[in-house]
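If it is no trouble, can you show me the amino acids of a protein and the tokens describing how it folds?
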Amino acid sequence: MTPPPRLGLRDALWLGVALLGLLAWEVSGGDRALSAWAGGHEAFPLRHPGTWASVLHEAGRVVCALLLAALIVDAAWPAPPWRGPGAARGVAQRRITAAATVAALVAVPALKRVSRTSCPWDVVDYGGTVPWVSHWAFSVADGGPGHCFPSGHAVAAFAFLVPALAWRRQHPRAARAALVAVLAAGALFGAVQVMRGAHYLSHVLWSAWLCAAIAVAVEAARRLQAGFR
């Protein structure tokens, strides 16, 4: 079943609205105010091992690994027993979904590796040692370790926007539930990172937007392919 054209337009509209909201948050200066509230000069007490934030941080990695393993097994097995008759006909689409999810999990952390921006817990305003530098100042190094923009940990949840959107074609109710779960988990993981001082909120929001853009692009490509057929 091919998604109706209006679904693609709605996806693009939501993506555009989200981008405008994200840019408005950046301009507002809310990043620094929120991080000051979360950590201040106490150097983010929730950063330390043993706190609830640190436990959730590690739990997120485990949950992501398990979900990704399940997605890959489902894609690699042409006709798994948990799917109904004719499952083999949809194996190509399942593999595209799995590959795009992996791409999201890899692409955003790859951007993070080239970032020269350090994390809030490194910034002098919050008990660190380096000055604050905007993550858009690509040519400016703040003197710290860098590699903080965008949020790699939040992608452990937001990458699964890809299967959540893909499932709408045949399982709309399950897709809605998955979408809510992914956004809730991403919000939780992102909040944990902000409270730990590992990221500014905009780092989390950009990760979410980039994963959503990948998911929307994959769905647009599927509709285009179906149109050619």
